[in-house]
Amino acid sequence: MCAILTRLFIRSVLVWSALLLVGSLPLAATPTLTLAGHLGGPALTVAVQGHYAYVGHSFEFAVVDVTKPATPQRVGYLVLSTNDIAMAGNLAYVASRTGLVIVDVSNPTRPTQVGDWRLAETAVSVAVRGDYAYVVTKGGLSVIRIASPTAPQLVGFAALPGRLETVSLDGDLAYVASNTGLHVLDIHTPSQPRPRAGTLWVRQSFIATSGYAEAALATDGTLYVAVGDQGLLVIADGRAAAPMDAPTLRLHGYAEAIAVTGHYALVAAGVGEMQVVDMADPVQPTLAGALALPGYALDLAVAGDYAYVIDRYHGMTIIAIAQPTAPDPTGHYATPGFTHNVDVIDTRAFVTTAPQGAVHLVDLTDPAHTYQTGWVATLDAAEAVAVAGRYAYVAGGYSGLEVMDLAAADGPMRVARLDGPGYVQAVQLTGDYAYVAAEGGLQIIDVTTPTQPREVACYCGTGAITDVAVAGGNPLGTAVLLGDSGRLQWLDLTNPAAPELVASLHVSGRATAVAYANGYAYVAAGTEGLRIVAFDAGAPTDIGVYAAPGAVNDVVVTGRYAYLALMDQGVEVLDLTDPARPMAVAHFDTPDLARHITVDDDKLYIADRVGGLFILQLVNRPS
Predict the structure, then answer these.
(1) Residue 485: its pLDDT value, please?
(2) Is 149 a domain residue?
(3) Cβ atoms of 371 and 413 closer than 8 Å
(4) Domain count for the chain
(5) Beta carbons of 222 and 235 less than 8 angstroms apart
(6) Which pLDDT tens digit goes with each residue over 388-422?
(7) What is the 3-state secondary structure (H, E, C) of 531-584?
(8) CATH of the domain at 128
(9) Is residue 172 located within the same domain as residue 200?
(10) Is residue 34 a part of any domain in this protein?
């Protein structure tokens, strides 16, 4: 009995010693995706104060130093949905998707959110006077007391009909532009905003307009209304007894926003222009000048001798207006707009945008402070880009394959183009060849001389090809083609001029992208998840599916990890130690639609459409 007890005692000591030893070992840290940097997204609004312009993108509040108008520089930013901005001292009041957000900009390099008031609907416009912010949402005008910026409080609301756009203030009046005209509210008592009639300009509480009222501005006895495709409505000197009789100046384009300097009104006129209107005689306004812009002029602000014009697709242009009739572009704060795809080489990212096809060059030397160094427009779309050396190869939709010289003396420029077999939507470079996926099949192009691309083969007639993944260098190995119907095809590329079909397999789901690594094909199959197909001894086998939390739109595989772009569910990292049973190890929610992803070591680069370019770092990744 004593021997048995002794053995049990020894066994217990050994067990506890083992447990203590295990407990003393460091636990493996959990892989985590953290935000390392951000840039761009459609530019929507601007406010200027002092030496800084505050630029609102769909999901970024950017602080831009404009001390030197010729070379504006972003010095700080906050990832924040920003539809409109009103400045008051060191505080920025932001109309955001969540409501009103208050940002402290006393340190321009580190803007910080200090308060917010959540609203049931997206805030589209904001104006500030004294201790109150006036915020427009879909349903009406909310009045929020901001005497304590860290604790704002809703104190009043006025329900208004129509699709509401902007709010501007003048004394005790608030003007709210809508799709049917202009609402006029008395805000003498901020907690009780109400329709107002019998004012200097307006003898009714609503001014019907012949077009979409986008914005209004009241100054020096004159009320200006940007009326979309109808131009500029001017109400002056009490003429609003019959507002429809007030002069409307038809403009080229679509009147989106107004700013005034002296007796000139500057109008952001939509596609391609800022226009200058001479208001010396408000009863007879005349067009006095215009300036062509590359994209879509959506908003503008005036400070001193400069106008700051927001271009939805290209950022902000700074224009000298010392002579308003001869506006002179001085500087450009350039950012990518609707991001579509991305490639990364060394310390540069190459971001394609849509619907305006272009390739934007972004410096990544410091991921936390990225900036655009140039851009080049494509002839049609810019579906995808692959870069080698000084050349970018762009899947250009109906324009085929476009070759851009990124190091040309006068900036990036197109140097060659080759028609594709229908609409071109993907491209991969391997060795001296570009593999182009198009609606007519796979085009294999010799790019030994980039300025003279030459087709060597077209594997066509088997249906549209959505994506291509090529394994092997020189000599080449295998290409995996993904058809728009979900058909996978394996090609032998030993002779690129004569690709041969080895095998094929159909996978379910709305397949959009394919990656190929270590004998496995990984298919982004939309809501069906990630399909995994083994290619062993020339026989493909569908070995399973990973049910992702969102629609899988893109997949990249490097080492033992797969990186998924999940549209409205952000991005996810999978451990592929057992390819048949991938395991999620990290996730990050991006604000819009994560369409495409590129991976470089521990950095992930995500084209998030309206959300812009997101740079994430995978922390604690096991070696």
Answers:
(1) 82
(2) yes
(3) no
(4) 4
(5) yes
(6) 999 999 999 999 999 999 999 989 999 999 999 99
(7) EEEEEECCEEEEEEEECCCCCECEEEEECCEEEEECECCCEEEEECCCCCCCEE
(8) 2.40.128.630
(9) yes
(10) no
| Phi, psi angles (nearest 5°) of residue 574 | -115, 140
Number of C-beta neighbours around residue 280 at 10 A:
11
pLDDT for 201: 45
Q: 250, 277, 312 — which closes off a domain?
A: 250
Cis peptide before 475 (omega within 30 of 0): yes
Q: Which amino acid is at 534?
A: A
Is 145 found in the same domain as 246? no
CA 174 to chain centre: 32
220 contacts: CB under 8 Å, gap ≥ 6: none
Instruction: Convert 259-279 into a string of H (helix), E (strand) and C (coil).
Output: EEECCEEEEECEEEEEEEEEC
pLDDT at 314: 92
- Retrieve residue 542's tokens: 């569908």
**355 preceded by a cis bond (ω within 30 of 0):** yes
Sheet arrangement for strand 32-39: 32-39, 613-619, 603-607, 596-600
CB 327 within 8 A of CB 308: no
CA distance 402 to 412: 12
Shared domain for 246 and 283, answered yes or no, is no
CA–CA–CA angle 472, 397, 612 (5° rounding):
85
Residue 71 domain-assigned (yes or no): yes
Q: What is the pLDDT of residue 472?
A: 63
- Beta-bridge mates of residue 92: 87, 103
Are 151 and 234 members of one domain? no
The phi and psi torsions of 40 (rounded to 5 degrees) equal 85, -150
Residues 6 or more apart whose CB falls under 8 angstroms from that of 248 comprise: 210, 227, 230, 231, 232, 233, 234
Query: Last residue of some domain: 109, 133, 158?
Result: 158
Whether residues 107 and 146 fall in one domain: yes
Instruction: Give the model confidence (pLDDT) of 450-475 as tens digits.
Output: 999 999 999 998 899 999 999 864 34
SS3 239: helix
Taking phi first (over 0 means left), then psi (-120 to 50 degrees means alpha), and beta for anything else, what does residue 21 get?
A: alpha
Lookup: tokens for 35: 């935000």
Rounded Cα–Cα distance for residues 275 and 292 (Å): 9
Residues (pLDDT < 50) of the chain are: 1-26, 198-203, 238-243, 473-476
**How confident is the model at residue 303, as a pLDDT?**
97
368 near 36, Cβ under 8 Å?
yes
**Domain contains 151:** yes
Residues 55 and 146 in one domain: yes
- Encoding tokens for residue 392? 């970018």
The type of residue at 498 is A
Q: Which two tokens stand for residue 321?
A: 């207006």
Q: Is the dihedral of CA 487, 581, 602, 558 positive or negative?
A: negative
pLDDT tens by residue, 314-352: 999 999 999 999 999 999 999 999 999 999 999 999 999
Q: Are residues 55 and 137 in the same domain?
A: yes
* pTM metric for this prediction: 0.90
**What single-letter DSSP state applies at residue 518?**
T
Q: Are residues 553 and 565 in the same domain?
A: yes
* Cα gap 255→225, rounded to integer Å: 9
Q: What is the CA radius of gyration of the chain?
A: 29
List the CATH number of the domain containing 317. 2.40.10
Domain that holds residue 71: 44-158
Q: Strand, coil or helix: what is 592?
A: coil
- Tell me how far the alpha carbon of residue 307 is from its chain's centroid: 24
